[in-house]
Amino acid sequence: MHLSRKELDELNSIYKINFVNSITGYKPANLIATKSKEGISNVAVFSSVVHLGSAPPVLGFILRPTTVPRHTYSNIKETGYYTINHIHKAIIEDAHHSSAKYPEGVSEFDKTTLEEEYLGDFFAPYVKDCPVKIGLKYLEEYQIKSNNTIFVLGEIMEVYVEDHLIEKNGLINLTKGGTAAINGLDTYAVPETNKQLEYQRPKK
Amino acid sequence: MHLSRKELDELNSIYKINFVNSITGYKPANLIATKSKEGISNVAVFSSVVHLGSAPPVLGFILRPTTVPRHTYSNIKETGYYTINHIHKAIIEDAHHSSAKYPEGVSEFDKTTLEEEYLGDFFAPYVKDCPVKIGLKYLEEYQIKSNNTIFVLGEIMEVYVEDHLIEKNGLINLTKGGTAAINGLDTYAVPETNKQLEYQRPKK
After folding, report:
1. Which CATH number fits the domain that encloses residue A73?
2. pTM of structure
3. What region does A127 belong to: left with phi over 0, alpha with psi -120 to 50, or beta?
4. Contact A187/B181, CB-based, under 8 Å?
């Protein structure tokens, strides 16, 4: 199938959203959890978390102000802290349910089997039993001119990873942990196998 | 395993790069292909492609000026056009080899079995036989203060998707197409199954 930009723009809205959301390939499946100053927690699925650098360790994600739960953003701005937690095989249904639009004052933790967990003195809640849990501090943001989204950056303050997932060279083996990937908006895949390749040098 | 930020910063460099690169979960596995004004093509693996919006259809990716082949960036800036192509099961080894650092004037297409393909009058080459191929036009970029990376945005100008991958609701079924996901820097996974979930509404 070939679609010109004109044909793409003319697709019906639901079809277009499904299509363009799946066009980039598999996306990371994460839960971002926050807590307001008033102590109301919030957790929501994000498929746009992206690695920017390792030293310092900086991660970003995209917020669509019109469609995404605003609580995540307002809590991050208000408190400075949030966590990123891997969606894994056992919690896919409940994680996905956190995309339902609950009114102000309702925590998605109370509407699902997802459990909030406070570790050390970190302000934001982690999601219990996730194979990888990352505590972040808000760094900066960029207002994207093209479409009014916001690119939010944070630095990693601490990390919890299940021991048995970490390979000798530092790789976190996601397949061993049952981490999920997202296809489009609502389709989840859990890879069963993976293959590590060598560092590549030019052929002679 | 628990790591504080201090412990993370003190990890040895290779270990740290592998660790932090795998911490966000599965990443999309794409080849970005470009051509210089002089006609020299270029193709390189990128795992940072991210969806920003569907109307208009905008995608972004992160460039690390110090580590990533600069040809991709200079060709995009010089010509305005590039393509994003899904890495799939049959080409994983050759796609990964495109990460080798070849000198100026050498096309990775000549050093791998990857074939460049020119479709319609689009300036940049596509990668032949990829299940999803996207033609983009450069839109804008953001210089990231935290770590000097560049966030490059483009708008989709045209798309080629294998017919049999497209579901009735517009979803491109990546599992049917054998699209790969990347774990860290060098580990590839190809999910065999997936599951589509319902649109979620608040529980009563």
Report:
1. 2.30.110.10
2. 0.96
3. beta
4. no
